[in-house]
Amino acid sequence: MTPLQFAVPIGALESISGAFPYVILGLVVANLLTRHLAYRRYKRAAEGGADTLSRYTPHVAVSALAILVSLLYLVIEPHSGMVISVLVVGTFVADVFEFEARQVEARNNLEIEKPKGAITASVVALLYALYIALFWVIEGPWEAIV
């Protein structure tokens, strides 16, 4: 017996393992949606100065949940779980730096730009989430080629 087998209920995770790719896909799409809503909120709040800017709580919650679910998926599917976990964590890191950039723009009375880096990271995560969730659509032609 290993000590970690009590920390993560692997049997319970395996029973719902088929839903993980779809949940991750939904969270990545929700992340894109909340990022757009956060950008609109930052733009409005920047008119009041840099002190009025604060992190958008729904976006932070969705990002944290996406990280948690992708790390749980890593336990079940090591290869694709590692790839999606790295992409989701990379998106979170990009969000952190993009928020800091929005604060600098508000402090210097500059126009609030779109979070280009975080959007790019999210699109890459979305493409891989689509791949792991919807692979069954292209599985036949893929196996014929590969």
Automatic annotation (TrEMBL):
Source organism superkingdom: Archaea
Keywords of the record: Membrane, Transmembrane, Transmembrane helix
Protein name: DUF7313 domain-containing protein
Bilayer-crossing regions: 20-38, 59-76, 82-99, 119-138
Record keyword Membrane present: yes
Transmembrane among keywords: yes
InterPro entries reported for this sequence: DUF7313
Domain DUF7313 residues, every copy: 3-146
